[in-house]
Amino acid sequence: xxxxxxxxxxxxxxxxxxxxxxxxxxxxxxxxxxxxxxxxxxxxxxxxxxxxxxxxxxxxxxxxxxxxxxxxxxxxxxxxxxxxxxxxxxxxxxxxxxxxxxxxxxxxxxxxxxxxxxxxxxxxxxxxxxxxxxxxxxxxxxxxxxxxxxxxxxxxxxxxxxxxxxxxxxxxxxxxxxxxxxxxxxxxxxxxxxxxxxxxxxxxxxxxxxxxxxxxxxxxxxxxxxxxxxxxxxxxxxxxxxxxxxxxxxxxxxxxxxxx
Amino acid sequence: xxxxxxxxxxxxxxxxxxxxxxxxxxxxxxxxxxxxxxxxxxxxxxxxxxxxxxxxxxxxxxxxxxxxxxxxxxxxxxxxxxxxxxxxxxxxxxxxxxxxxxxxxxxxxxxxxxxxxxxxxxxxxxxxxxxxxxxxxxxxxxxxxxxxxxxxxxxxxxxxxxxxxxxxxxxxxxxxxxxxxxxxxxxxxxxxxxxxxxxxxxxxxxxxxxxxxxxxxxxxxxxxxxxxxxxxxxxxxxxxxxxxxxxxxxxxxxxxxxxx
Amino acid sequence: xxxxxxxxxxxxxxxxxxxxxxxxxxxxxxxxxxxxxxxxxxxxxxxxxxxxxxxxxxxxxxxxxxxxxxxxxxxxxxxxxxxxxxxxxxxxxxxxxxxxxxxxxxxxxxxxxxxxxxxxxxxxxxxxxxxxxxxxxxxxxxxxxxxxxxxxxxxxxxxxxxxxxxxxxxxxxxxxxxxxxxxxxxxxxxxxxxxxxxxxxxxxxxxxxxxxxxxxxxxxxxxxxxxxxxxxxxxxxxxxxxxxxxxxxxxxxxxxxxxx
Amino acid sequence: xxxxxxxxxxxxxxxxxxxxxxxxxxxxxxxxxxxxxxxxxxxxxxxxxxxxxxxxxxxxxxxxxxxxxxxxxxxxxxxxxxxxxxxxxxxxxxxxxxxxxxxxxxxxxxxxxxxxxxxxxxxxxxxxxxxxxxxxxxxxxxxxxxxxxxxxxxxxxxxxxxxxxxxxxxxxxxxxxxxxxxxxxxxxxxxxxxxxxxxxxxxxxxxxxxxxxxxxxxxxxxxxxxxxxxxxxxxxxxxxxxxxxxxxxxxxxxxxxxxx
Amino acid sequence: xxxxxxxxxxxxxxxxxxxxxxxxxxxxxxxxxxxxxxxxxxxxxxxxxxxxxxxxxxxxxxxxxxxxxxxxxxxxxxxxxxxxxxxxxxxxxxxxxxxxxxxxxxxxxxxxxxxxxxxxxxxxxxxxxxxxxxxxxxxxxxxxxxxxxxxxxxxxxxxxxxxxxxxxxxxxxxxxxxxxxxxxxxxxxxxxxxxxxxxxxxxxxxxxxxxxxxxxxxxxxxxxxxxxxxxxxxxxxxxxxxxxxxxxxxxxxxxxxxxx
Amino acid sequence: xxxxxxxxxxxxxxxxxxxxxxxxxxxxxxxxxxxxxxxxxxxxxxxxxxxxxxxxxxxxxxxxxxxxxxxxxxxxxxxxxxxxxxxxxxxxxxxxxxxxxxxxxxxxxxxxxxxxxxxxxxxxxxxxxxxxxxxxxxxxxxxxxxxxxxxxxxxxxxxxxxxxxxxxxxxxxxxxxxxxxxxxxxxxxxxxxxxxxxxxxxxxxxxxxxxxxxxxxxxxxxxxxxxxxxxxxxxxxxxxxxxxxxxxxxxxxxxxxxxx
Lengths: 260, 260, 260, 260, 260, 260
Known about the structure:
Six copies of one chain form a homohexamer.
Chain A: E1 2-7, H1 15-25, E2 31-36, H2 48-65, E3 71-74, H3 82-87, E4 93-95, H4 97-108, E5 112-116, H5 122-131, E6 138-143, H6 155-171, E7 177-180, H7 189-196, E8 200-201, H8 205-221, H9 236-242, E9 253-255
Parallel strand pairs in A: 1-2, 1-3, 3-4, 5-6, 5-7, 7-8
Antiparallel strand pairs in A: 2-9
Helix pairs in contact in A: 4-8
């Protein structure tokens, strides 16, 4: 089974560490590759304008590479370009951190809080939460007042803030599960849950295990993405006629499983 | 990894076939046992009164056996006793067909229909669907006008009816995914999806793969069921003082993985 | 008109006092009996596992006794086993504290808070509130941090805590009505409403008056519980064939109206 | 216990028959008066502009007469002026057909359809249903294509149409309970439910029994309408200063209990 | 293009100032008249009973005057009588402050808070917000603890309180837009938004520009109010037969555009 | 006042006709330019993958051109890239067809249907409708089974289909207003509403008049898009450092007002 993780940013700086996290938690037989975008793309996606600059890249990568994979993961908690990518993924499943983390949380507790970086992120993420059907069980969105590049800059400081906000989410907002609302909040969940006593869903691990499950189920039960109605992909003829989504996909770095 | 499937009915008649389905679709390393209830319990759970007669059994089995398993599955699409079982499952995850099938459907399409046995079943199942957060993407609940014991009695007839109702669900209700709303609707999904061209979620396979994923994630990431607030289990001292949930669990048949 | 109150716990310790409350507030011509469960059942239902241990008892009692009553009340604010009991109540109406209290609150004010015992209770109760349609007018669920047996242990202390939390619910959460979220919170509502100046719905009185109204309406207008679709009861033949719900109902104590 | 029914129309033509229905279904000790508006008011309220012409009358009647009654009922399924009347009802409860019928239906079945006169009525009534919290359990609004004065003009024809639409509501829309969406649809519910086999809630009886229950509970438990926040009434001084709501209330006919 | 603003109160005290505000912000070619009610009507509408006293006036004014106007505005943030007025407005559009302000807010930000006068106002206004579809994006309703006549009595004090509450709404409730929840909160929005840095929607300006837009679109595209189903007006014959809505409309003061 | 309409497709084929429609309906003083994308972009946006190929273009155009305009309109009923464009529009308002059309519909009737091209479009559009808050008043989405380039290919055929589906939407789905769910469904609304008797909202006109209103209000009242929380734009320094959104915007054709 082959899974592709997309870091939809113009840096390969996170490829190695995320690849390692994935490889370490892969099921037997799962191979995972990590791809990131070429230079010139945003280095993070905190702003929606930045998202807009990478959605065509995500679509293109999924369109071109999905045939070689069982599953693809879009590595951003905004779930950027999820609907678009799913349309062209063929038989490969596509997952994303927010939707996957919510599915985990719903199995493990009655309510959850999301620890996001900044208030900036909340409106779109909250809309996604509602859209996915979890508006009623959202205890709170709690901002850490940290940007994407702050999380790993001073991990002690980050851990301290996360612990504080997590505690408030549990005690005051009555969350039974915490979700880390950014893929770059990796590395903290274990210590948090040890200390806070509730499961802390990591935004890298959740969509990965979800992708594995879906991909494995696709092999076993032929549960491929629906191609009916909204799931219908664009016609190949049109893509050729218009010469779109053709040519090489915009890959900056492709880290193969064996090289992780 | 060990998973326990509970057939919450007073017959072992489904243990073998469901055990086989599970074993055939198990991940490497997964062992699955199947348990059913002693005689004197209802033979199916179409009526809510019947559900009430088995919820204490489910709780008791989960309380006693969960420590030996990574995950437990309640084998009824009403998701009978799910909240109660989760409370006493300790570190084992507990899944159920309806909630799990919905999570699959949401990853594979924009909307779904559930093919239920009879209209009798719809109000509770629809309430569950809303409660789990999928009210907006439910295309329809379509009754097959078949009872639990009809599904496998004349499989050609059942297949024909399922195909008819599935087609209507897709074409008229605009469902992109179908869900089979009873664990005893097993054995039909492959042919249906070949013919109808949309994924057809089987109510045995979905909660099983979900349990595997959660159990595997519990091992990897220590994402155990939240024991905070609503997830707090009853105190052992009270159970002892009152002598409840003590004594042997009500097991009619226990089919071990090796004997499947 | 005859009404049956079920204390779904394995003690008759509340039968007398609740019987007295009911008798004192009964309409002319209403007779009310109180039944509780045999020993060996949980002494309270704060945990969902405990609920699961009494649902079959409730179903059985309703199945056997409902023909002798116009209405039956399930005496627990979780509304435990309500759907199941309603299925087998024949022409008798079945009410429960949460649903009934909400109906009262909606007639008396724009929004309400529920004063529950502990945070443990909130997730299921809040889900019930949403399910019954009152999610938008719920001002708050406020825990008193008291267990079922604490309420009457030190009534001055309980009254003080209730008054404090009720005041906060009104002033900070903007509740216009308070609901006492446990049947054992009896005896406090009068003083609370005198002091706080808003109606305080008692969880014993509300389902009782609701049962009286429904039972009286059943006599007058023949508005019996719907037996269509979800309301269809199990077939008698199946019950006989399987020998379920037969034999004596699990009654620990039956306090007759004349003996209250 | 004294209850006042308001026929908010400029005719006393319905006072007698509605008075009789109420008297016949009154609890022992309940006295019921019926009041209607003076000439010059609309003869029915199918149009919202007509509603606007009687809301001040309703408010005024409630303001002036409520002190002499335990409960007041606004006799129109639009629940016209309900919020306004409740504000000035003092200790008297105020009920209305739509909200009350829904509360009955929710106790007797899982879902309901409303048989309204004309499609004209549906938008406001459906909005009310949603507002009261029953949007999820509304099976359908089915128009009979009859106006207020048609219902009793040819009762055989009306019964036939009601029976037809009721049957469709049950069989196609899966309603378990029917509600008659106009107070002038009186006289039909008994035969309908005999034939159709589901409870048929009458829009005269439902708010009356609800008013009795609330009024009786007010006497017993002092559950009076909340006067906090949104329930705060206008200050008497302002009414006097501005000379509003003063002078005789606009009563066209007052039919006393003893004269019914 | 001619627009009519209705001050639905029994004083002409606000006609001049509101007329001036409107005139100053009118598009080229827009003429705006202001009408208020005769003496004997409430001087403000903080209480719902007061609303009930003016709804027939609003309906009557709209019925009689709408033919001379392209659009009519009901000048009260409760949107009093909006459904009723729309029914008889013929080809003229009818707008109101709450619905219009929400439409503006939804175009300018992700979430909004409403600064209302007193808590009294909140339940109805919040219900309106939900009814209009903005329940999910409502950040908060914040009371200023000021009545209608307080706003302009001491504008420095009012500005201070508004600024404080607005700041809290932004910083604590995460509002991105503020709405002033009363037409008499005019004159403050400019300074507030300069200081607070978010758009502050004025309840006079918003429904006026909305009315202009709708009226202009009606001229251009013939988008008149729908007269189908719920929008069907009462039949003229009935109005004549019953002699309702006939005679002079209840106008206390009519301030013509040229006289502003 | 200057408004920019973006045709987010790789053809200038619609620029002239849409420019003409806008110019013909512009308020005095409004100038409108039309821009479309360079060759190599999709010719329509029926597929979500196509949307992904133009979102960065939309963002870039808005970022670069917004300072010269009061308002910008994204000309696609998916409202593609709306959140992203709004983030970088500075003081210019940004509107889009779906959100704007819904705001019109809500002012003109109680419920609406959207006539979309194909079922393919429905899931995303329905999600948008729910997200904007209009899920409860959506009567139906009705597909015409026509693609974007079919609408104007045989206008008689299109008109006939639209009329048929519009009639069904009104009569069977109870819509009071129709919305044309594609900007290329221009030219039909007048005849449709003449025949069908309900307002038919055109997806070109609605966002244009909305943009005019918002832009005019921005000038008058300084109601600019909120830049707080979710509305915060990316920092200029980051754009420069990363060299993104810099360089010429991807304009294929720019049709100036004077040249229309």
